[in-house]
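Lecture notes, unit on protein representations.

Consider one protein chain, 192 amino acids long.
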Amino acid sequence: MKILQLIKEEVVPLSRKQNIVLFTIIACIFQFILFYAPALAAESVKPANAQGIEQDMVITNDSLSKDITMDPEAAKIKTADEELASSSEEIVVRTSTHTMTAYNSEVGQTDDSPCTTANGFNVCEHGIEDTIAANFLPMGTKVKIPELFGDRVFVVRDRMNKKHPNRVDVWMKDRSSAMKFGVKVAKIQVLK
């Protein structure tokens, strides 16, 4: 304990203001190392691997087109490449718990253009149940709701009434599905 006091007073004498500045700098460095550096490292490794696997895939595709049973390792490389691409795109940025409801394209549940979301996307033409409305997330944000929908990825394309600032509303094709869904509480994973 005396050694730490000696270092503080004689080796590195700092004023209170200097201590605060030093602490802030150290905190920023740790934040970068713990949060941003791993993501940057993953991104820097990805292109090198993708290029190497892509070259293998060109050879693999030629060999697979001749005889699919000729090179079983080639099929494994292609599968590993597909898994790498899907896992690198779906990095969970944060997780939070929200009340969940469901809606469908009816004038009574939306506005006078029920198929068009707040960002102009036509869910009726798209026909896939991968759209959510959420006021607390930016448009285009991708999320998963694993407790309710497994690995399905949803995109924020719509907004809700302002009285529901923290709710998630899942678009469904038909009214009976939305009614059956009801009101639930579940965790969402915001993806990068």
